[in-house]
Specification:
The protein is mostly helical. The protein is built from eleven helices and two strands; from the N terminus they run ααααααααβααβα. The protein is globular.
Length: 284
């Protein structure tokens, strides 16, 4: 009873300290859940604009990001909105009745800006997650990865305990499996289309986005902070490298899609859809 009361007090304190929550409720008359959702969208718009300032400054080398022009700035902002919109909706963040408190704002910005600045560190700038990527890392980079990875793993284990206790484990696992299935389908299409030299490249925006799905049961500040940092990294990745950050599988040669390939994929898709439809009726 006491622990439940403390949790309710913690949730209430997070809600009332929302930075933009009152703007959406008092000025735009949004309902609570909608106000919370758009409060978080506002956070990551701010993160994007902050990353754009850093990208345009002398602190970041020109080789550390794609061409920074008005067109890329505009459309990458749109892409970041779409990605964050998808992640927040899938993670049911607004349903927790926890708004955008000052701590979340700070660590979301630290996540984006901090990761960008880490990329300027000489022994970290060469980290590229492709085949056998760990074999080419200097000792300093390995130690840094172990420290950061251990911290994420420790907080992640705490999240597993909380999510199992609160019945949210299945939601997190389901969302991660949906992303894995989606990329598996994309890989299958590349193979069917006979794309040449298929290889993977885990961009940091992909990794951070998938990992953020795990940190959604905010029973303590560490888990909430980790979520803020990870989504900040997602926004930074799109700001610096555009929508290419979502391309997990890369190919060297461009193969044209034939009519036969298009028809085959169309037939397979609707065949699977038909099987699922029939199964849904048989399971009634």
């Amino acid at each position: 009873m006491i622990s439940t009361q403390k949790e309710n007090e913690l949730t209430k304190s997070r809600l009332t300290t929302g930075i933009t929550y009152k703007i959406y409720t008092n000025i735009f008359y949004f309902k609570k859940k909608m106000a919370i959702f758009w409060s978080f969208m506002t956070v990551f718009t701010s993160v994007y604009l902050s990353c754009e300032i850093l990208q345009s400054s002398s602190f970041i080398k020109n080789t550390s990001h794609y061409s920074n022009n008005v067109s890329s700035f505009t459309y990458d902002l749109l892409f970041s909105w779409l990605i964050i919109y998808f992640l927040l909706k899938q993670q049911f963040i607004a349903s927790q009745k926890i708004s955008d408190n000052i701590l979340y704002w700070i660590f979301a910005h630290l996540g984006g800006l901090g990761f960008a600045l880490l990329g300027e560190v000489p022994f970290l700038s060469g980290i590229v997650i492709t085949k056998n990527w760990w074999k080419h890392l200097p000792l300093k980079a390995i130690i840094t990865i172990i420290i950061i990875g251990s911290l994420i793993l420790l907080i992640g284990c705490r999240e597993i305990y909380n999510s199992c206790k609160d019945g949210m484990f299945k939601k997190s696992l389901r969302n991660i499996l949906i992303v894995i299935l989606s990329y598996s389908i994309l890989l299958s299409i590349l193979i069917i289309g006979e794309a040449k030299d298929i290889h993977y490249h885990v961009h940091h925006a992909i990794f951070a986005g998938i990992l953020s799905i795990w940190f959604i049961d905010w029973k303590n500040y560490a888990i909430m902070i980790m979520h803020a940092i990870l989504l900040g990294v997602v926004v930074e990745g799109i700001n610096f490298y555009g929508i290419g950050e979502l391309c997990l599988f890369l190919t060297k040669n461009k193969v044209l899609v034939t009519l036969q390939t298009s028809l085959f994929i169309f037939i397979i898709f609707h065949f699977i859809l038909l099987c699922l439809y029939i199964s849904s009726h048989l399971l009634k």
